[in-house]
Amino acid sequence: FPEKELEELQELRWGTRTMPDGSTVSSSHFGTLVHEQIELATNAYIEGADYHNFDWLEYYRPVIAWFEDCHVHPKHTEYLVADDDYNTAGSIDGVGKDLKTSQIILWDMKTRAAGKNIKDKAYAKDAAQLAVEADIIRKQWELDYMPRIYTIVIDADTGEAYFKLWTEKAQAKALAQFDAVSKFYDAIEGL
């Protein structure tokens, strides 16, 4: 790849994906594009607009079906949060309401090559980011419960989706791990 810049080559070390038009892009860029299409379709769904005309229907159809089949009312995409106690800020992929429990839920989407068992592609490290964001939402929205968290794994090859609801125990452990790492970082940096 002599025509590629060093930064492009570093990104390609994670692999490439073929776009619907036949072109090749880095795996990370492909994941960003899939995420963008799901976000556009979700926003259209929230607004009551037609969401069937976006690119890559096979990637966002499972998420829309999850909303309908599991009684999830999406409220926000890319919802920004920040918290001084945790010394962190971030963007939550999705915030919604579980209509069965009337409670707020959060989700984060991961595009990964899943292979034969997509359930194996939801990693414990995925829960840490969501756990702290759920705690921030709990405090800022003055909720008397901890919002539940989901990792949505999108198979990069097929568009199949797996919706991992983290147990309360796993969520509490992830929050404690985030808090410990945050304090460790603050101590090293003198914050």
How would you characterize this protein structure?
With 191 residues, this protein is of the alpha+beta class. It has five helices and seven strands, in the order αββααβββαββα. It has helices at residues 6-12, 27-47, 57-69, 124-140, 168-189; strands at 16-18, 24-26, 72-83, 88-98, 103-112, 148-155, 161-165. The strands form two sheets. It has a five-stranded mixed sheet with strand order 3-4-5-6-7, sandwiched between helices. α2 packs across α3 (57-69) and α4 (124-140) crosses α5 (168-189). It is globular. The termini are far apart. The model has no long low-confidence stretch (mean pLDDT 89).
User: In whole angstroms, how far apart are the ends?
Assistant: 43 Å
Alpha-carbon Rg, integer: 18 Å
Percent strand equals 25-35%
Q: Which outline best applies?
A: globular
Structural class: alpha+beta
| Average of per-residue pLDDT values | 89
Helix content class: 40-55%
Number of helices: 5
Which sequence of SSEs, written as H and E, runs from N to C? Answer: HEEHHEEEHEEH
Strand order of the largest sheet: 3-4-5-6-7
Poorly predicted runs: none
Give the number of DSSP strands.
7
Main beta-sheet strand count, sense and barrel state: 5 strands, mixed
